[in-house]
Fold these 2 entries.
Entry 1:
Amino acid sequence: MFGSDDITWCDSECSATNCSRHPHNMKCKTIPHSYAYFKNTEYCPFSKVEVTTQERGWAGHLICGASCLFRRNTLVTCDNVKWVVSTVGGLPSPLDRGQMQTIGANRWYETMVFESLYDEYDDADVKKQIEFESDWCICGKTWEEVEEKYGKFVDKAANEMHEKVVDEIKKKIKEAYINAKTSDPV
């Protein structure tokens, strides 16, 4: 365990080793990053980092996304880092009234994640895709196969898929933010 001699303060106003007013100023001399020592403690400089989400009403990706009956676009923000989670699907066929068409190879719904363009609307920068582990598509050779698997609840399954990705991305964006803030030695 480290003692008070291992801790310095970058704020000359406060030098108490148990200060709860200035934990963000605490630095550990023997570990390159304050975060490495104070991780998961009340003194962690990132313990209060907030991740927010904002639901938006337009498709975040896919050239025909605006024609999809199912569209979810969630902006996930951690300080100045912004990522877009986009799920689209349920694309009506323009040729066969009442029929659905795929949005990709045997894909009827899909979720993708992108960095923000950091424009007026924080739209998805589709050239900067973010990888994730969660399920990302609802697939089937035919629409009937998809309906057989999910019944009338295909949109519900797509919604649950989107939510799982958002949950994963919320953790991942916070990690990315913390890694960016702690990458330079103290």
Note: Confidence is low (pLDDT under 50) at residues 1-35.
Entry 2:
Amino acid sequence: MYEPTLLFYILSQKVLRKIYQNDIIYFNRFIFKYKENFMEIKIAICDDEHQQTEYTRMLANKWADAYDIKISIKMFGSAESFKSAWSENKDFDILLLDIQMGGQNGVALARDLRGNADNKLIIIFITALPDYINEGYDVFALHYLMKPVNESKFYEVLDRAVRHIAKNITALFLPVDGENKRVSVDDIIYIESFAHFSDIIMVNGSLKVKMPISELEQQLMQSSGSFSRCHRSYIVGLKYVDKITKTDIILDNGANIPLSRRLYNDVNKALIKYFKGD
């Protein structure tokens, strides 16, 4: 028989292993559910220490391989070089940012980014200096990793980053002419369905996709609360609604979208919630 203390230790370790296994299973299911929506995660590493940059890149690639996530990584040796690239193309999802660098430091760069209303970029500080932790909160950094970076902690923080990205998806990847095309959710005015095809009417044109409207509705509801199903054949972007009647929705561009009597109350509630900012 085990001693009581030893028995408690064995049982507690079994419980901890079970919790850890459940957490891994949960994250794998989460990744499977959302992976097709973000297709590729774009990571920037900004650090003036080449050896640290290469180590961070190795960890990120190892993490991505473990979950079969497609990532792209671009490295920057200074805050100035990242800022220049970002001003031309705000195409990164995650910034792994050192603090103590020659020239502008990482906290100052983060302040500049947030000052320009770039709030969707996930910032993760990686530094040897604990002195800036409070300032990290000021710029809404997701986390503060200390050098030398612990591998398991690094993976845990990237897991959190992916969950954050999935909750804030602003684009759909839709099948168009045999390839997946990225479509900005904000640009979708309305969607009209014809059998198994859907026409997506956008600010700068339109697309026809072989996808039922119910599937598009599900993806839009996961990514944004700014759409409403108003008819069996239509989904409307709430931000483009000018006014509604009992039978129609009139959009800013003058288009008339039929409004189902059955869905009238749901659309009204959705509009009120959207414009209140709830």
Note: Confidence is low (pLDDT under 50) at residues 1-34.
